[in-house]
Specification:
mainly alpha
Length: 161
């Protein structure tokens, strides 16, 4: 599993503490990075609660990293028969299109009232899911040539792996 609950299960699916104290401390330190990052986000003047969304934030980061690696491996294998997209390929690289597609998945529009409901969900609001996930991803920063120390390429990135 790519989120924080997965560590509680062994290879047979039994719920038990099987990590070493050192591994657990390292994991907790990395989780704290995500908590601090997401707790600092505001959307439309409302605070995001990283404590509620932590598992899904970690899953989003791991999922994007893993899917990008799989995408790159497929291209490298020569089996990546991806079609060029007229207009888009004139403006963006294939890697950039990959990240644009990821971001479009979470594009959303909502009212202040709707946002209050969304903030109680285990998933961060769409715009925050995008920002948090891509700002922790080195490949995104490379694909878009994001300057170090900016919103989309912060000096400190959170990762679990």
């Amino acid at each position: 599993m790519l989120h924080s609950a997965g560590r509680q299960y062994d290879l047979n699916g039994n719920r038990r503490e099987w990590w070493t104290r050192e591994s657990l401390n390292s994991f907790d330190e990395r989780v704290s990075c995500f908590l601090n990052q997401y707790n600092a986000y505001k959307l439309m003047g409302s605070q995001v609660n990283g404590n509620i969304t932590i598992g899904e934030n970690i899953a989003d980061a791991g999922g994007l990293e893993t899917s990008f690696r799989a995408y790159r491996n497929r291209l490298a294998s020569g089996r990546g028969n991806h079609m060029d997209l007229p207009v888009l390929n004139e403006k963006y690289t294939h890697d950039q299109i990959f990240f644009i597609a990821f971001s479009q998945l979470y594009c959303s529009k909502f009212s202040i009232q709707g946002l209050q409901q969304i903030l109680m969900d285990e998933h961060s609001p769409g715009p925050i899911r995008i920002l948090g996930t891509i700002s922790n991803n080195e490949e995104f920063a490379k694909a878009f040539n994001c300057k170090a120390g900016t919103t989309y390429n912060p000096e400190k990135k959170c990762n679990i792996w």
